[in-house]
Design brief:
- This protein is α+β, with helices and mostly antiparallel strands.
- It is 37% helix and 17% strand.
- The chain has a three-stranded antiparallel sheet with strand order 3-5-4, with helices on one face.
- A hairpin with a 6-residue loop joins strand 4 and strand 5.
- Helix 2 crosses helix 3 and helix 3 crosses helix 4.
- One of its GO terms (molecular function) is nucleic acid binding.
- Keywords: Phosphoprotein.
- Pfam families: R3H (PF01424).
- InterPro entries: R3H_dom (IPR001374), R3H_dom_sf (IPR036867), R3H_domain_containing (IPR051937).
Amino acid sequence: MESPFLSGAPAHDSSTAKEGDREGRRAVGVDAFLVEALDNPRHRLTVLRMELDIQKFIQNCDQQQFEFQHLPTSYLKCATHRVAQHYGLQTMALDNIIDGFSRRVVARKTPESGFPAICLSDIPTK
């Protein structure tokens, strides 16, 4: 049975490599970077925690800006931007004036902000 969240999955025999499955598997309306991150057990929990933070932020009418801190890798910064943008938020990286490294991502609500048709937590793993 094909998942309603996935499309374009060609038929593969059991000898098909993992890469072939990833190429044919795409969540409709979800950034390919996020789908790949969710397929990776090492990153899935982190992405889902980011999503939960964003969902709480969007539901809080008193808060217009949310700051993600302690993002030690460029991969996590990229994931933060992509998850926030999936929810229609505007994002920007803030540089630390002291050491010059960008370790924070700020997300701001826009008129388009809100829950997407497909939440990342609804996307199944392979």
